[in-house]
Automatic annotation (TrEMBL):
InterPro entries: Ald_DH/histidinol_DH (IPR016161), Ald_DH_C (IPR016163), Ald_DH_N (IPR016162), Aldehyde_DH_dom (IPR015590). It comes from the Bacteria. Residues 1-13 have a biased composition (Basic and acidic residues). This is Betaine-aldehyde dehydrogenase. It comes from Rhodohalobacter barkolensis.
Amino acid sequence: MTQSTKEKSKNGEVKPTSPNSDLKLDFDSFWEYSEAPESSDHIQLKEKYDLFINGEFVAGNKGRMMNTINPATEKTIAEFTEATSEDIDLAVKSARRAYEKTWSKLTGKERGKYIYRLARMIQEHAKDLAIIESMDGGKPIRESRDVDVPLAAAYFFYYAGWADKLDYAFPGRKAEPVGVCGQIIPWNFPLLMLSWKIAPALAAGNTVVLKPAETTPLTALKFAEICQDAGLPDGVVNIVTGAGPTGAAIVDHPDVDKIAFTGSTEVGKIIQKSLAGSKKKFTLELGGKGPNIIFEDAPIDQAVEGIINSIFFNQGHVCCAGSRLLVQEGIADKLIKKLKERMETLIVGDPLDKNTDIGAINSKKQYEKINEYLKIGVDEGATIHQNSKELPENGYFCKPTIFTDAGQSNRIVQEEIFGPVLTIQTFRTPDEAIDKANNTPFGLASGIWTDKGSKIFKVSQKIRSGVVWANTYNKFDPTSPFGGYKESGMGREGGLHGLYPYVNLK
Ligand code: ADP
């Protein structure tokens, strides 16, 4: 509350004069913040990155380079190597050697010590990793600082704890490592996805060849430096960079025992086809179109914050985003009004500014895709509402957007947009909400907002999605499994479930 709405009583206590008397908000002045940019002057990045194979940085066999840009400025940050299939072969051989000679020979306790060390070193480098993540990927520093990096360390800590307790994880069975794991990750949570992949693999005694996405390779390359500094035995972690063909070379390599992929459903299907008939184990974590269901008895203000967090968080670059809002008719008008007002307060801009709520869209390709969907939504007859503030002149930025009057068969309701775009539909009964929630090809995550515990249990049982959040959204914890139904993927990551794909049980 601003000072103008308050007066001081005699004892110094601040009291509202007449509640809401002058609360007609002038959003521009009320939410004006001074700039608070995080400095990136001290960040040490190389101009050119080689591949990390067998414990050292080595030039690629053909020497082909790619650029990674800062999507907020469109300026190149660094060059990195495009690994060829010959490079992948070297990386897989190095992982195989490390698997046979060192890593699988260590006791669980010794492996655990290394993984704890990696976790602690991520914490020690937390600030720099967060800044690099925001520069390379466009996400607000508040998120990379408070969500991505601390969670990445937490996943390493969690799986370090399992390394010497595999007999308790799988009572009565002997858990053997799978061997060499090929891991391919996307650009929305680069370091966090790396931790989801590498930590359980190492804990179970496997070695890895990991490829970050071509638009966000930098934190993975920094992690390679951390592996060196941690004294991790050579070849246990290999980081190879490149785009789709490099990923395909990992998938197709005959000496890889397991593939873990997170990315688009489209590429997931290609990978699954290539793996058909091979003995390779695999997990796929793919797209989503998360329904967020708000019942009439929900705590409405918390629900508004939850909705904002579920779709505008990380520019909507979240596979489990609550991109479809289903709201019960009786509260629809009130909720939509509050939501639009809250959306108006969101700050879109410099990812390194601590006030920023919505940073830059990760790449030009993704920026164009989102804008294409905005056109599709309007053409389909939905009503578009956007935050009215100007966007920065340079860089790839999108306004947070709400579509009302969206129909179930509309493409904006059925297809994953992967941007700060929310569709809103209404429902009358819980059954109608469940039908609408389940009526897409995806099933990754969903939310339910209600005052009634019984309704949470009843509805969540019938929703076909891997995660159902109740009266919250986008909460992650290393101990709980994550993964999808239908076209959202196969297998689970996180928690005890996340160890299964990395072991053979005897
Ligand atoms: P998006 O479409 O959201 O960019 P992708 O699924 O294309 O996501 O990318 C996720 C990861 O998969 C990236 O690391 C990318 O380089 C990699 N990739 C893309 N195409 C292939 C492919 N055919 N085989 C293996 N990996 C691939």
